[in-house]
Amino acid sequence: MIKGTFTPPDYSLQNLYKAFISGPQFSLIKSQELKKEIILTNFFDSVKSIDIPVYFIQGKYDKQTNYELAKQYYELLDAPNGKEFITLEHSAHYPNTLDSTLMNDTIKKMLQNH
Predict the structure, then answer these.
(1) Which pTM was predicted?
(2) Cβ of 18: how many Cβ atoms within 10 Å?
């Protein structure tokens, strides 16, 4: 994943800095209010229905966004225009190369269907 990040022609050094240094510093260190809001937000209570197609793409071994909790929310969520839960069997928070075909196929399917 890191090699791919440094080789695409669409990313500049400034983009990489924002993605790996300034963005994480803001969200993890500087933004205490954002952290508080994330901790206090309960989608089980506040967002029970979504009127657009919904796709959950979840890494099975993700420790940042818990797989079981995401699955529970998916089951509860009312999505009259469709919903789908896609499990990345080999990934954690970032999809790895073993799940890249599934990711690509899923995104193509989303674009074709909607």
Answers:
(1) 0.68
(2) 14
